[in-house]
Amino acid sequence: MSSSHQTTLLDMTKHLGTFRIDLDLWSQFKTVTAGEGSSASAEIIDFITRYLAGYRLPSSSSEEPSSSSIEALIDAHLAPVKQQLLDIEARLAAVQQASSSSDRQPSSKSSSKPKPVRQQKRPSEDDQQDAPIDVVGQPVDLSKGLLQNDLCRRLKVVGHTRLSKNRRLGASALAMYTRQRDPDGKAWGYRDGRYYPVD
Q1: Three-class SS of residue 168?
Q2: Is the whole-model pTM more than 0.85?
Q3: Mean pLDDT value of segment 90-101
């Protein structure tokens, strides 16, 4: 379809309105609207839209607009804002649903077999009394920190999605999340690729 044909079709949906008005009054109106960053045509169309929505100008200076006309004018102006709010709410709901679905699904890394733990020299019985025990019954030196998978096993969480998410939220969020799940009530922090108890 040629551009001239498209222009003709668009023109058929518009009507060129003409009316008589005092020349000075029209010139002043165009000057004021241009100074406000608008145009005479745009302001006339805006007036017609509000008029159709129920807004009526008072017939005299002593007469105030009715409450129904004011409400109609407010509704006409708020309609685009309400639609934008509905769109935002729909997007938030979709994001929350997607986030919930990803949290319920274990990551591919968590489904893989854990690496075998190297056999270490068993410490004395006195050292074993206070030292934390790992999944194979061997004491763990927490001062050296734990890898992410090791901390997940200690906290008994499936996958590391929530642990990583709270780590990205900051030290306070990570400490609160780990303290609630640690068997000894310890809070954990993160630095240099490992997790360390912070208290």
Answers
A1: helix
A2: no
A3: 89
